[in-house]
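We read letters as residues; the integers encode the fold. Take this protein.
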Amino acid sequence: MTSPLIPTADLAARLDAPDLRLIDASWHLDGRDGRPDFEAARLPGALFFDLEASSDPDSPLPHMLPGPAVFAARMGALGIAADDSIVVYDTVGIRSSARVWWMLRAMGAGDVRVLDGGLPKWLAEGRATESGPATPRPPATFEPAARAHMVADLDDVRATLSVAGQVLDARAADRFAGQAPEPRAGLRSGHMPGALNLPFPAILNADGTMKRGVGLAAAFSAAGVDPDRPVVTTCGSGVTAAILSLGLAELGRSSRLYDGSWAEWGGRADTEVVTA
């Protein structure tokens, strides 16, 4: 099994590979634009992926996965093809890079990995960066092949919960328990009945890299997850849920990501919410 993560040393050794495409996926929950981060310091040759601009423009929910044709046009304009060797990173460590990894995989890209530890680890090791506006790549053709089995919608989540299936929530424990308000206005506090809680930092190390092997498996086990059974990941708006999906992929397990996540579930009047 090929790991969905790539260590900084391994990436540094193949920066000159002709099929390598580096994507800076920096994004911030507070609405700050990630492009200033990108222009301040980025990996050599990296391209900037604008998460909001690359999401479904017609959905009232935040940064939902767009249709295959829209996504393919967006990636093609960046100069990225589905058969490229793609490495995604962000300026936090492993945050929005996991979401973009998931988007690319869900749209048919075959070789996508996340830089373990992201830009912070790269900088801490004194590795080369560049700054300023990036030089655009020539357009490419991204042939989409949507993988519907990676995406869950509201009905899928309801069906999973109705049979005591595993819905795994990446939000902080106090938000999951309904003891802290949601950062998005208009959303109820709490969680889906029967959902499990694994705050995403629990699968990361102090240096921003992801836990591996026994330590990673133990984090899922402590949350009550049976990795041999199907898992649907969820969070506030579908970003940090992808970190849990990435962790499951590192363990060789597949999952589905609930794209609407709490932004949808917590904002509806016809969904059950529990606390404590």
User: Anything to note?
Assistant: The mean pLDDT is 96.
